[in-house]
Amino acid sequence: MLDDAIRPAHPEDAQAIADVQIRTWRVAYRGHVPDSVLDDFKLDQQSQSWAAWFDDDSRRLWVAEPKKAIIGLVGVGPVRDESFDADTGEIDALYVLPEHWRQSWGSVLLRPAMKNLASRFERIVLWALSGNERARAFYRDRGFRTPGETKYHTFRGATLELEQFRHDLEG
Fold first, then answer.
1. What domains can you pick out in the chain, each with its CATH number?
2. How far, in Å, CA of 43 to CA of 55, rounded?
3. Arithmetic mean of pLDDT, 67-78
4. Average pLDDT estimate for 80-98
5. Is the dihedral of CA 129, 130, 136, 137 positive or negative?
6. How many other C-beta atoms lie within 10 A of the C-beta of residue 108?
7. pTM for this one?
8. Mean predicted confidence (pLDDT) in 121-125
9. pLDDT tens for each residue of 100-122
10. % of residues, the chain, pLDDT over 90
11. CA 50, 164, 115 angle in degrees (round to 5)?
12. Which SS3 state, helix, strand or coil, does residue 146 take?
């Protein structure tokens, strides 16, 4: 059962988590994010970024680890955008290695994230890359709605258009 492969992440997982992020971004965002940005990811730098997650008690991170290899992750916490109220949580990251797409791992990872957010917040917000049709369809199919709001985020010198998704929770 896929649910049995989901567990809370630990600091020692930071390098494997970074590897999943890098490999996923390089496939999912190719053509939407400049190649130079995708190709410039460094495992040690991303590992340090993920290790910092464990220093913030308000954030939660789960990994999918079938057969003793991390193949996906989901990270949540309070919304980072100050324009939202304190009753709003955020899905910061949901990544599954491309070779495991369309195998339900995203949905399975989303379950503990949604449960955790529902215990702490009234609504969820997330931002998806506007050109990432796979992610946009995934969230819509799971009850997230798009209020039509976008924002621009500069990441490593590249300006990315992000589309907002929201989901109201029932505690």
1. 2-168 (3.40.630.30)
2. 19
3. 96
4. 93
5. negative
6. 20
7. 0.93
8. 96
9. 999 999 999 999 999 999 999 99
10. 82
11. 60
12. coil
User: Contact, 70 vs 20, CB < 8 A?
Assistant: yes
Question: Both tokens of residue 20?
Answer: 């999943």
Helix-then-strand count for the chain, H and E: 5, 7
Confidence of residue 62 (pLDDT cuts 50, 70, 90): very high
Strands 6-8 and 123-129 turn out to be unpaired
DSSP notation for 99-115 = GGTTTTHHHHHHHHHHH
Read off the pLDDT of residues 148-169 as tens digits, 9 standing for 90 and up. 888 998 888 889 999 999 999 8
**Inter-CA distances, 40 with 23, 149, 156, Å:** 12, 29, 9
Q: Would you list the DSSP string of 32-80? A: TB-HHHHHT--HHHHHHHHHHHTT-TT-EEEEE-GGGS--EEEEEEE-S
Listing from the earlier edge strand, what are the strands of the sheet with 88-96? 6-8, 60-64, 72-78, 88-96, 123-129, 158-168, 150-155
Q: Which of 73, 79, 36, 37 is CA-nearest to residue 59?
A: 79
C-beta atoms surrounding 132 within 10 Å? 17
